[in-house]
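Continuing the batch. This is chain 6 of the set; chains 1 through 5 are on the previous pages. Same settings as before, nothing changed between runs. Recording input and output for traceability.
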Amino acid sequence: MNYLNITRYIYLAVGFIMVYDAYSKWSDDAKPWLSVFLAGLAFFMFFFRSKFAKRFEENKKQQQNQKKNQNNTTE
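Output for chain 6:
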């Protein structure tokens, strides 16, 4: 599960690298639209994974509470 927590921060780092790349190349003749697109995609993936990580964690806690409640009622 730690691996999944680390990968969302990798997306964030890649997003900042792509923003820097786009900013540094913006004054050149060829506009860096690919870097801008990849930065947007990386930031989207960061927030997407963060949202679903919280949702999975809440579901896991609910399931654990349900199991505890079932064990307490059967005793």
